[in-house]
Amino acid sequence: MQNDMKTPLLAGAASDASEPLPRCPGGPVISIIGSGDFSRSLAIRLVACGFRVVVGSRNPNRIDRGLFPDGVDIRSQKEAVDSAERVVFAAVYPEHYYTLVGLRRQLAGKVLVDVSSATRLNSGEQSNAEKLAELFPESRVVKGFNVISAWALQAGVHDGSRQVLICSDCSTSKDTVLQLARSMGFSPMDVGGLCQSRDIEEAPLILFPSWGGPILTTFILFLFFYGYNSLKHILLPYLDKGQNNFHQLPLVTMNETLPAVALVTLALVYLPGLVAAVFQLCRGTKYKRFPRWLDHWLCRRKQLGLLSFLCVVLHAVYSMCLTLRRAAGYTLLNAAYHQVKADVENSSVGQQVWRSDLYLSCGILGFGVLTLLAITSLPSVGNAFNWREFTFVQSGLGYTALTLSIMHTLFFGWDFAFFPVAYPYYLPPMYLLALILPCIVLVGRLFLALPCLTLRLAKIRRGWESARHWPRNNQDG
Ligand SMILES: NC(=O)C1=CN([C@@H]2O[C@H](COP(=O)(O)OP(=O)(O)OC[C@H]3O[C@@H](n4cnc5c(N)ncnc54)[C@H](OP(=O)(O)O)[C@@H]3O)[C@@H](O)[C@H]2O)C=CC1
Ligand SMILES: [Fe+3]
Prior knowledge:
2 domains, eight-stranded mixed beta sheet, Rossmann fold, membrane, disordered N terminus, elongated, 19 helices, binds NADPH dihydro-nicotinamide-adenine-dinucleotide phosphate, 56% helix
């Protein structure tokens, strides 16, 4: 990769350095103006990828060299720019760009990368990169590296959300930066000329870009189940019989809604994997792209899983608080009074005891497994696993959590669904509705576990393709 890098980075080097610095053998030299947080993260990543880095500071003697990795040279701004083979990063806030005009001569002909972000959305102003290009007309300004966080830059994390967007009016300079980004482990995307730079600068300001869909889905599910529950147990009894159950809205209704949302959201984490498997089985190849909606859904599984976990945690806390309610105390007292009046000594029903113990046990175990899943979804923990371990945890334990959650719900409902009293106003119990999708997912997974399907899928995932995808000459041969 590094050899690929050398040619374009070295080619076209146009240093007017009057006093060039001695260059160590090794990777190409990249310079960074500014010694702040972004500069440090960038230097760490560049050094790890085999580049030599020279940081240019207004006052190099003031910098704590221990903050930068070994091999990073800290010089004056002028010396740093002089020593750059071709690429110079401006890791300085845009309001200070004008202080760099003294470097115009040194920067002439070099690729000047602007990494700054906008401070406001939709301001309609000229972008920072366009301002920089105006200040340095003889440099080739490229906009890019607006990753969401400097942490991602340092860690080199790259999934869909770690894509770096690059734009410039100079195509050769843009190619150089695209290649540099690739060498750093990012997925760069060419988005055109410098006129696109405002959009790139605004990208880090958009809040939680990968969370919008999952949050909206969870919210819609919440509204549906909360509305359904309120209608069935509060609004209709009030309109029909004048029963006032409105006090249930803040706690009881919430606590019944949250597990339903958690269960359906958890099913939505595993459903796209099944759909993807069905696509691959039907197509007989893994080399055809999934439809965009499925790709998008697959990329949001982690967010959906974490939102499901949040609902589970809230459900656990709400459940623990149920007995603290004043209404719970009254219910207990009323039951005791009725028992005494009926002269019943022991009202314990063996079946009910079993039911509640099994229901609680499955709930606690499911909660434990989901906690494990949530912890292993953190990059710092997940990185400690190899691929098989990670797949086992995320898929094997994931389905275990789903099964335990379904059992928890089934034990909660017990045989209640078979009595007409559970269907007031012809509305089925909510837990039955919440079980539909998770059960479909579980049955679908069991179906895919059939040996004929598992073996075919395993073959496809190892690169096998059905005959209809073979090139014609191969078929003839
Ligand atoms: N693309 C991305 O994802 C990200 C981009 N950024 C961008 O990177 C740039 C730097 O951010 P960051 O490193 O966090 O900021 P810092 O404040 O940590 O660092 C800025 C550096 O600029 C240098 N500098 C040069 N001239 C001046 C001046 N006149 N006044 C003040 N400082 C000056 C200073 O270095 P010295 O004193 O050594 O000269 C200072 O350390 C910003 O434009 C920011 O928007 C930041 C985070 C993420
Ligand atoms: Fe529960």
